[in-house]
């Protein structure tokens, strides 16, 4: 057993671990880190209060971090980010408890998912959220018991809603409009965007736009 104190930095070919205090047990392949914990592998950056890590029977590292902030820089430009009470990082999946998930820039999360549990399945390229609230500027606008989305690339799902206000002719009071679009990834060469718009002065409006790539003759 190794006890390391004071600006500890551990490096391997798979991850980097920084912390104030680290205890390594070589007999059962466990590691416990406390204080200013920073963990990075080939896809995730995670910081938190405490980390416990253990290798499974196949030699893969399973890391659990409490009171954590994370950034998934492998999910695309900017990467997804959020916070969680507990994060369990496995080789093919990431499990988050009482967590948020957003594709907005770090610390500018106007839109986010706030859920009791989130799974980021790296093999299936899907995210799954349970008891999820979709929030804008901290205010919940939609509750869904189950919600799923694509982590990288195209996939069916809600697009960013749009909100504005306007004034009808000959009216002094301003009205508001909110538009919620949904994207259907029908095939590699076909898609459909359907949107439901509510205008406070006119009611509901439905619109749809179908697109298809046609190879040149």
Brief description of this entry?
By secondary structure, this protein is mostly beta strands. The chain has no helices and 15 strands. The strands form two sheets. A ten-stranded antiparallel beta sheet has the order 1-2-3-4-5-6-7-8-9-10, with no helix packed on it. Strands 11, 12, 13, 14 and 15 form a five-stranded antiparallel beta sheet that branches.
Give the rounded overall mean pLDDT.
89
Query: What is the terminal separation in angstroms?
Result: 70 Å
* Fraction of helical residues: under 10%
Q: How can the largest sheet be summarized?
A: 10 strands, antiparallel
Morphology call: elongated
Uncertain regions: pLDDT < 50 for 5+ in a row? none
Question: Which helices and strands, and how do they pair?
Answer:
Layout: E1 2-11, E2 16-25, E3 30-40, E4 44-55, E5 61-72, E6 80-89, E7 93-101, E8 111-121, E9 126-136, E10 139-150, E11 157-158, E12 162-166, E13 175-187, E14 190-199, E15 203-212
Antiparallel strand pairs: 1-2, 2-3, 3-4, 4-5, 5-6, 6-7, 7-8, 8-9, 9-10, 11-13, 12-13, 13-14, 14-15
């Amino acid at each position: 057993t190794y006890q390391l104190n004071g600006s500890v930095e551990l490096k391997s070919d798979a991850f980097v671990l920084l912390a104030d205090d680290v205890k390594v047990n070589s007999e059962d392949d466990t590691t416990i880190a406390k204080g200013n914990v920073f963990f990075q592998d080939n896809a995730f950056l995670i910081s938190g209060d405490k980390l416990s890590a253990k290798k499974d029977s196949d030699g893969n590292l399973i890391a659990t971090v409490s009171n954590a902030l994370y950034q998934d820089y492998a999910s695309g430009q900017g990467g997804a980010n959020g916070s969680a009470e507990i994060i369990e990082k496995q080789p093919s999946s990431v499990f988050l408890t009482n967590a948020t998930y957003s594709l907005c820039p770090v610390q500018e999360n106007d839109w986010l998912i706030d859920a009791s549990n989130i799974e980021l399945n790296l093999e299936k390229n899907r995210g799954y959220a349970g008891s999820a609230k979709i929030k804008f500027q901290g205010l919940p606008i939609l509750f869904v018991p189950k919600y799923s989305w694509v982590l990288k690339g195209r996939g069916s799902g809600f697009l960013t809603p749009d909100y504005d206000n306007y004034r009808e002719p000959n009216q002094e009071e301003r009205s508001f409009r909110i538009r919620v679009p949904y994207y259907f990834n029908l095939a590699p060469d076909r898609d459909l965007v359907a949107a439901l718009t509510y205008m406070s002065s006119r009611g509901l409006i439905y619109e749809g736009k179908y697109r298809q790539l046609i190879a040149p003759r």
